[in-house]
Write a structure and sequence with these properties.
single chain; about 110 residues; alpha+beta; SHC Adaptor Protein; 2 domains; four-stranded antiparallel sheet; 4 strands; globular; disordered C terminus
Amino acid sequence: MKHTRKILAGAALTALVAGGGVTLAVAQGGDEDSNETDRPISGADLDRASDAALAHTGEGRVSGTEVGDEESYYEVEVTLDDGSQVDVQLDERFKVVGDEADGADDEGRED
């Protein structure tokens, strides 16, 4: 009888640990649209990237940043004075390599 209890207790513990691992994996997974490596630009790089993006747009305020964007090394989201947003793509040297209005598809048209 004691032997059966030990086996059941061991099986229950194993199931609990395995279930916790699955829960942890799901909790860390996030949604499909988020990229686990997304991180904001910080420090002096944030200042340089912001200055470059605002000089490119000529107006607005920085409303988001990302290092390692899929299109470039840095991405700076600028909210323009009219409320629209532009993603400015920068290379490692903070040179503008492209921009795209938020909501525009690959052809440059609004969605």
